[in-house]
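Here is an idea for our session: we take a single protein and study its fold together. To get us started, please write out a protein record for me. Start from the sequence, derive the backbone structure tokens from it, and show both lines together. Go ahead whenever you are ready, and we will take it from there:
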Amino acid sequence: MPLTDSAIKAAKPKEKPYKLSDAQGLYLLINPNGSKLWRFKYRVRGTEKGLALGTYPTVTLLQARKKRDDARQQLAEGKDPSLERKAQREAAIIDSLTFEVIAREWHEYRRPRWAKSTADKTMAYLESDLIPALGKKPFKAITRPELVALVRSIEARGAFNVAKKSRQWLSQIFRYGLAKGVIELNPATDLDVVAAHAPALRHHPHVSFQELPQLLQRIEEARINVLTKHAINLLVLTAVRPGELRMAPWSEFDLKKATWTIPKERMKARRPHIVPLPRQAVAILKELHEVTGEYELVFAGRNNTKRPMSENTINKALSEAGYKDRQTGHGFRHLLSTELNSRGYNRDWIEKQLAHGDKDEMRDTYNHATYLEQRREMMQDWADSLEQKA
């Protein structure tokens, strides 16, 4: 006999679970704890399966029969109700995924493959430009016109390099979403086709070697933080990248051996790099140790010593000293390369000092030489020539 509300209400729990059958596979499971659960029993290709339809009295008898009938209709259409429900739940999860969720997941996936400075910079731009604009939007609902409008807004403020990076990151983020099955088409492809024409820029501008002593003198006389002055001098004396210097911990330095060993995790090329320290650089580091030696970082931030000095500090100082658009922190690497090549030093020594890989990939793979002693002599000559010219 079909179930009735009065029969359901009168049903009491027993020591073991038992069933009250309705009709066409619908039954109520009564558990020892008193819970009453609707279940639908059906068969698919000879296999018996079950489908949970809710709890009584939250789901009434009439509602349970309606859910049973819907499941039977799916069976009539050749569908498995359990698989259909699973697909619906997965679709609901996908629909709830926002751009921010996928972007951060992509960043976490990519992070081990990047140098720490690259990972930090990428996240900084995500949080300053992409996430504020797209973060709360459902990932699968974002359209190509929205992405074009976002990139154009970045170009409109003159940040053409950020716009270029944003196009690359958007493409990779949506490719990641495509691989995960969140979207079926990538709306971020070919965004470069509508990119604005960026004005010609002199990348990493730098002064000549003849102008360098005057630059260093102006920095010394400028009213800027002593840590910033030391940072600029160390960039000149070592030719490391500004990010490698800013985030350097004291643990990487051996002042007795006059070497600085940067682990691969912090290097752009993902290879460890040994930097020979001229005696002038060692002297600066000893002075710095009096100021920040108690902290983890050599260039600990003024407001938060656990964070490095700001990325813009060095370039801002150079600008305030009168070298805006004439010299950047990164530009010291180009200055050194130009000068040392003109002096006839071995190209391999110079490229190794700059932590560059060989353009010949096969040669780069088999050339593991660090040329440390040769570079030590070269960089000491470089430091001495600066001292003589001062």
Notes: DSSP finds 16 helices and seven strands in the chain.
